[in-house]
Amino acid sequence: MSAMSQDTDHQGRAVARDAVSNNDAVSNNTVGKSTGIRDNATKGSVSQRATDGGVARVVFAQPGDAPRLSAVIAAAFRDLAASTWLVPEQGERARIFPDYFRIYVDHAMACGVVYTTAERDAVALWLPAGAGNELPPADYDSRLAAVTGPWLDRFRAFDEQLEKHHPAGERHHHLAILAVRPERQGRGLGSALLAAHHSALDQAAKPLPAYLEAAGADSRRLYARHGYQDMDGILRYPDGLSNRPMMYPMWRPPRGI
After folding, report:
1. DSSP codes joined into one string, the chain
2. What are the backbone angles phi and psi of residue 44, rounded to the nearest 5°?
3. pLDDT score of 38
4. What is the mean pLDDT of residues 69-76?
5. What is the pTM of this model?
6. CA-to-CA distance for 220 and 229, rounded, in angstroms?
7. What is the mean pLDDT of the chain?
8. Other beta carbons less than 10 A from residue 205's beta carbon
9. What is the pLDDT of residue 11?
10. How far is CA 102 from CA 35, 74, 153, in A?
11. Less packed terminus of the chain by CB within 10 Å, N or C?
12. How many angstroms separate the CA atoms of 138 and 163, rounded?
């Protein structure tokens, strides 16, 4: 299973980021155990970052946040070009997408790291990858079929196209989804979420690279400001009918490497 990263932050200004310590730690993910990034996810702040709208407080999402964060992703991705290819009719997208993205949120909650803001108006889903033993979400095929109905073949073709281009053979973290509620976009929230996990990747005992699929030119510019580089190849629509790119694969080496 793969997903797309949305253009969420048109500002991307370089601003100071202060780590916030918290001693009330509880385990809510397995990434720290598998990569050495952290042993526990905390209930409190991960970081704070100045944005155009004030200060964004980045926190680890909790299981009870899943419905709300799925709705944020659905709203943010509703009109992306890839979304309209998957489900051309807007009303159908509005119906399908919350449950579709809930599959991703549940999986990242179980197997990765999910960041959000204190207001729950933005979300980033990260998954460990490259080890060769990654598992799909529980009951993925049946859940996907139940959610997408007549559009199932397009969603399967979309998955296959992204999986075909996903780099293998080197451990990394995959930014499966980055989304900001539409009315909150352009205020630096996407950059705040990125910075939180990039810091963890860079400071790990063995620093790790990151991978994503950018949805368009604005996304590529945002991610380039955060250290991502274009990879060879462009993801194109599976039907072969459209000459326009579908996604742009990008790679971020850990800082200092």
Report:
1. ----B----S------EEE-----EE---SHHHHHSS-S-EESSEEEEEEETTEEEEEEE--GGGHHHHHHHHHHHHTT-HHHHHH--SHHHHHHHHHHHHHHHHHHHHHHSEEEEETTS-EEEEEEEESSS---PPTTHHHHHHHHHGGGHHHHHHHHHHHHHHS--SS-EEEEEEEEE-GGGTTSSHHHHHHHHHHHHHHHSSS---EEEEE-SHHHHHHHHHTT-EEPSS-EE-TTS---SEEEEEEEEPPTT-
2. -90, -165
3. 41
4. 98
5. 0.83
6. 9
7. 82
8. 8
9. 33
10. 25, 9, 19
11. C
12. 18
Amino acid at 72: V
Residue 244: exposure state from Cβ atoms within 10 A (0-12, 13-18, ≥19): exposed
* Of the candidate ranges 128-132, 169-173, 202-206, the one whose mean pLDDT is the lowest: 128-132
Compute the C-alpha angle 183/81/65, nearest 5°: 45
Q: How far apart are alpha carbons 27 and 219 in whole angstroms? A: 32
pLDDT of residue 64 exceeding 90:
yes
Q: What is the DSSP string of 39-77?
A: S-EESSEEEEEEETTEEEEEEE--GGGHHHHHHHHHHHH
Question: 139-161 pLDDT, tens per residue?
Answer: 999 999 999 999 999 999 999 98
Contact (CB, 8 A) for 250 and 220: yes
Q: Are 61 and 115 in contact (CB under 8 A)?
A: yes
Count other Cβ atoms within 10 Å, centred on residue 168. Answer: 11
Token pair belonging to 87: 């489900």
